[in-house]
Design a protein that fits this description.
With about 170 residues, the chain is mostly helical. The chain has seven helices and two strands; from the N terminus they run αααααββαα. It holds the Pfam family PBDC1.
Amino acid sequence: MASGDGLASLGPEGASAAAHALSLPAEAYGNDPRLEVMWAMKAYNHAEVYFNLISSVEPKFLKLTKQDDQIYSAFRETFKDFDIKLLKEDELKSEEAKERWRPFCNQFEGLVEDFNYGTLLRLDCEKDYTEENTIFATRIQFFAIEIARNREGYNDAVYKSKCKSKS
């Protein structure tokens, strides 16, 4: 993932102010465009950290949450044949997909912190985060798909690619 200035460009005081602002309830904002930029920066930072993690550690050993087993079981029970290698936007965003995903996601309210926050998700698990390969999803969708990708070996391509480039 290309490194940008991200939160570092804000400096310690700006990053602290951004973190505080993101912790306030949504009703405190209205349609403040600065909030959208802060959320985008937070999502980008999360994506960068995650990609660096799966590039550095064999993905099958990663634990993303305390509820990984529960998330994975519920995901595979609900979405038995869901193709996690190459996602299609309409499988997450269409009205029909939203109707399937909503009950799945809502079962983790109170169990997974910020379960419905926006997060960046790679469409093709063998590729980096790019504009063409990234979709905005909820955090629990990210966890469900990435836990499955890690356990089922789909993120191994990223890890192996980074290992090869180091040698």
